[in-house]
């Protein structure tokens, strides 16, 4: 048996599994024929966690002042590989703590405990324009964490790792139920937290990319909210040309009337075009009145009292304002500029009577969210409900502000709703600031929802 194989066997037999959530490796020393030799040990705690939970990574039993690379690898559901890595030098005791020590190179630098996730990128030679998204929330994201000798930047698959730990990152906590919704014409998925309930609830709506996107709803349910991921832009052959506001009201009422839901504690959350839907519901609906709203990377600018088909037809006519940069990336932010002054071309946010949290990135290249938010703020201040508005605005963050540690992509492939055309969409953002924005905004979104959905009475609007 070779020394390497012996180390691997010894390392495997030394692991003690405590519950299904933690893996506690034991330090081992193995003796060669002539001297005491070191068997490197990699520790990741916990090995099984929600995607927004932090983990702690430590390396022990390497040589003092040894250069090592800590590497992460994930194979997506589309069979593409994503990786990240940091360069470290062990201390005089032969240890490295990713939580406390600074990476001096790699896909991230500095003290970044979660850099091995948020700085992930497709491995060299991958397809162009990839974006990492989870479709099947009933299975985890499996991420291999490994250590390599020396400071490596490529060729990881061709080298033997000193040690590897397999980790699982889940959107769905144990006990959360997933229920398909196909009722009264509404398509979606309901996620119900474990326990007797009833619970506060969130209606979760994504943007113009369409389809049924479940992972954020699953994560919200894992934090105690009954959440419905709502599909409202289906593939072309299934699209409803004249989808009206009533569709969203029916979805809201289905969620509100569920026996596990507190009917007076329902919020609406939208990203991108989902923000337009959320603000429209809060401002105009007489039957669906959210307790609070969260709006991420969106705008209030779109024709009022029109079907979705008519709204997208209007956007299609304005696409002449779109730009294409030198890298053939499509930039949409000018499509709604300048912000219109006509009352029938934007939501009258002065009518909103519930708390609203707006989250935007200042480098959003997809939509004019900075200008829209400033106009929303002015409109609400003039109407006397400005006290209901909270704005989180992040420098150098882009359009796709997602749950924490989601890898940042500045651009990716996108299928337009208007022409069903595949383009490279520029979302914007720089990797590190965007990652910081995702972590900070998610914690504040959860706090906002807990604050306004758990208190006894909503704040009164001063109109």
Features:
463 residues; alpha/beta; eight-stranded mixed sheet; six-stranded mixed sheet; 8 helices; 29% strand; globular; disordered N terminus; disordered C terminus
Task: Describe what you observe in this structure.
It contains 8 helices and 25 strands. Strands 14-15-17-16-18-19-22-23 form an 8-stranded mixed β-sheet, sandwiched between helices. A 6-stranded mixed β-sheet has the order 6-13-12-8-9-11. Strands 5-7-10 form a 3-stranded antiparallel β-sheet, with no helix packed on it. With about 475 residues, it is of the alpha/beta class. The model is unreliable at about 1-35 and about 455-463 (pLDDT under 50). The protein has helices spanning about 5-15, 115-120, 215-220, 245-255, 275-285, 310-315, 370-385, 430-455, and strands at about 15-20, 20-25, 30, 35-40, 40-45, 50, 55-60, 65-75, 80-90, 95, 120, 140-150, 165-170, 175-185, 185-190, 200-205, 225-230, 260-270, 295, 325, 330, 355-360, 390-395, 410-415, 420-425. The protein starts with a helix and ends in a 9-residue tail after the last helix. About 20% of the residues lie in helices and about 30% in strands.
Uncertain runs: 1-36, 457-463
| Tally of separate helices | 8
Supply Rg. Answer: 24 Å
Shape verdict: globular
Beta percentage is 25-35%
Mean pLDDT: 89
Give, in spatial order, the strands making up the sheet with the most strands. Answer: 14-15-17-16-18-19-22-23
Helix coverage percent:
10-25%
Largest sheet: 8 strands, mixed
By DSSP, the count of extended strands is 25
N- and C-termini, Cα separation:
79 Å
User: Structural class, judged by helices and strands?
Assistant: alpha/beta
């Amino acid at each position: 048996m070779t020394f390497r194989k012996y180390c691997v066997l010894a390392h495997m037999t030394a692991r003690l599994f405590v519950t299904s959530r933690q893996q506690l490796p034991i330090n081992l020393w193995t003796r060669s024929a002539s001297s005491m030799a070191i068997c490197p040990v990699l520790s990741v705690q916990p090995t099984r966690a929600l995607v927004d939970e932090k983990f702690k990574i430590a390396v022990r039993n390497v040589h003092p002042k040894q250069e090592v690379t800590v590497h992460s690898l994930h194979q997506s559901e589309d069979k593409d590989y994503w990786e990240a890595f940091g360069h470290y030098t062990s201390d005089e005791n032969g240890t490295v703590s990713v939580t406390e020590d600074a990476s001096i190179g790699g896909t991230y630098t500095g003290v970044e405990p979660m850099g091995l996730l948020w700085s992930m990128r497709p491995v060299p030679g991958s397809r162009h324009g990839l974006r990492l998204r989870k479709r099947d929330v009933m299975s985890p994201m499996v991420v291999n964490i490994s250590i390599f000798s020396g400071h490596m930047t490529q060729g990881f698959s061709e080298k033997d790792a000193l040690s590897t730990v397999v980790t699982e990152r889940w959107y769905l906590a144990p006990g959360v139920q997933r229920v398909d919704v196909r009722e009264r014409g509404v398509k979606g998925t309901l996620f119900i937290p474990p326990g007797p309930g009833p619970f506060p609830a969130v209606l979760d709506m994504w943007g113009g990319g369409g389809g049924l996107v479940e992972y954020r709803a699953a994560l919200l349910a894992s934090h105690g909210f009954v959440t419905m991921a709502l599909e409202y832009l289906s593939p072309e052959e299934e699209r409803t040309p004249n989808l009206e506001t009533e569709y969203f009201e029916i979805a809201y009422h289905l969620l509100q009337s569920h026996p596990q839901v507190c009917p007076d504690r329902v919020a609406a959350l939208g990203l991108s075009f989902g923000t337009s839907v959320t603000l429209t519901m809060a401002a105009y609906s007489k039957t669906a009145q959210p307790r609070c709203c969260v709006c991420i990377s969106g705008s209030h600018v779109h024709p009022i009292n029109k079907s979705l088909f008519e709204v997208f037809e209007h956007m299609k006519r304005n696409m002449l304002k779109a730009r294409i940069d030198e890298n053939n990336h499509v930039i949409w932010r000018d499509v709604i500029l300048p912000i219109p002054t006509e009352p029938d071309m934007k939501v009258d946010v002065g009518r909103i009577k519930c708390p609203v949290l707006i989250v935007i990135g200042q480098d959003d290249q997809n939509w004019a969210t900075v200008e829209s938010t400033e106009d929303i703020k002015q409109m609400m201040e003039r109407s006397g409900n400005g006290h209901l508005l909270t704005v989180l605005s992040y420098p150098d963050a882009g359009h796709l502000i997602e749950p924490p540690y989601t890898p940042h992509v500045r651009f990716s492939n996108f299928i337009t709703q208007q022409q069903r055309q595949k383009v490279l969409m520029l979302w914007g953002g720089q990797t590190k600031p965007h990652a910081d924005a995702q972590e900070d905004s998610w914690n504040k979104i959860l706090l906002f929802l807990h604050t306004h959905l758990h208190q006894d009475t909503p704040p009164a609007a001063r109109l």
